[in-house]
Design brief:
Length: 396
């Protein structure tokens, strides 16, 4: 079979799968990770709203010098990362301890130390475009190692090569391999006190991240069904972990696997539309990202089932929903009604403040439309109607 594709594989460019984060998990993971770090100067960045976190981490072993910064997650905008980058230039290692906002801010600061010009790329154009890619790895300058200790679940920011940043009232998406931590500690001591409503919300975030990649179309060329099989397994396991009231560490591990495992390999990074639509809605309505997401998902899924393949394939949505229901059989058969029931029962859904759907559509098209691959081809009228339906909500 030399020179021929194996049966069941589609000819074409191969998919690429590469992840650089090393993950330590379980009790004692934090101490194990920090003890293994090389000697040098270490900066510890923790969530200012959780004063006990610094005590959990303690002094970084073997570090010749350890400084502490308490970062307010509500102030994690572009300028906060720029300021933090100036501090990072004097350190060999930075330990990031907190939720997704802290993780993203510290990861971006590290990227800025290696490529200062990335700051200008992010500022350029205001809210247009919404996506910013960093420079080639070969062009990077010196930067500290990044150790991540997440205290929340669901975002997978600790292992993700993407981060969101607030600049001029707009949330932009930055993509670069350096944003993923070099080493991650998933330790129950960091998440055991997380309230169950936040565990459920984190699990739902991971579930919808999987669906956003799975529903649009099969994985890329020359890749077997492994990615789809793992995605469906993770959907089932995430739902079951919440229903069975499993420890938060279980959800944290499953969430990280949505990025680290084969579930994401070969996917079109821009095929799933939910994130881009929800991102602008969250900004305009001034609500949490997940509250905006669960408002948009039923509307998008209804269009998928009606045959609008720009949003996804109906058969793949039904397969994903079947996997979700296998973890919670009491959910409705219909994916649109079902996801609305799930988000309400898990305490994630909530009424949205009134916004002008047309204004949200305009903002969305400016950030992600007009020839960009995320929402290319969508009209202002289509998105206005979509947002209007999201504000109305799914009938009870």
């Amino acid at each position: 079979m030399s020179g021929a594709a194996r049966p069941g594989l589609v000819p074409g460019p191969p998919a690429v799968w590469q992840r650089t984060s090393r993950v330590h998990l379980g009790p004692g993971a934090i101490g194990e990770v920090l003890a293994a770090e090389r000697p040098g100067r270490a900066l510890l960045v923790v969530d200012a709203h959780q004063p006990g976190l610094a005590d959990v981490i303690g002094r970084v072993p073997r570090a010749a010098r350890t400084d502490l910064i308490r970062l307010d997650p509500e102030g994690c905008d572009l300028e906060a990362s720029v300021s933090l980058a100036e501090r990072l230039r004097d350190f060999d290692c930075v330990v990031s301890v907190g939720g997704g906002s802290i993780m993203d801010a510290v990861a971006l600061a590290r990227l800025f130390t290696a490529a200062h010009e990335t700051q200008d790329r992010i500022r350029l154009g205001g809210g247009r475009p919404g996506l910013v890619r960093g420079p080639a790895m070969s062009a990077l300058g010196r930067h500290p190692r990044l150790v991540a200790v997440p205290t929340t679940v669901g975002t997978a920011a600790e292992v993700s090569a993407a981060a969101t940043v607030l600049v001029g009232g707009h949330r932009k998406l930055v993509m670069h391999p350096l944003l993923a931590a070099d080493v991650v500690a998933l330790d129950p001591v960091a998440t055991h006190s997380l309230p169950r409503p936040l565990v459920r919300e984190g699990a739902l975030e991971a579930i919808l991240r999987l669906c956003n990649g799975y529903v649009p179309r099969p994985p890329g060329h020359r890749f077997p069904p492994t990615a789809d099989a793992e995605a469906l397994d993770l959907l089932r396991d995430l739902v079951h972990a919440v229903v069975a009231d499993r420890p938060s560490l279980d959800v944290a591990v499953l969430s990280a696997r949505t990025i680290l495992g084969f579930a994401s390999v070969g996917r079109d990074a821009f095929a799933g539309k939910v994130w881009y639509l929800a991102n602008e809605l969250a900004s305009m309505a001034d609500v949490r990202k997940m509250q905006a997401t669960v408002a948009v998902v039923p509307v998008v899924w209804a269009r998928v089932l009606d045959g609008d393949v720009r949003f996804g394939e109906a058969d793949r949505l039904r397969a994903a929903w079947s996997a979700i229901r296998s973890g919670c059989p009491d959910l409705p058969d219909d994916p649109v009604q079902g996801i609305a029931v799930l988000s309400r029962s898990w305490g994630v859904a909530g009424p949205l403040p009134h916004c002008d759907p047309e204004a949200v559509a305009d903002r969305t098209l400016r950030a992600w439309g007009g020839g960009l691959p995320m929402l290319n081809g969508f009209t202002r009228r289509e998105l206005t109607r979509l947002y209007a339906e999201a504000f109305q909500g799914v009938p009870q």
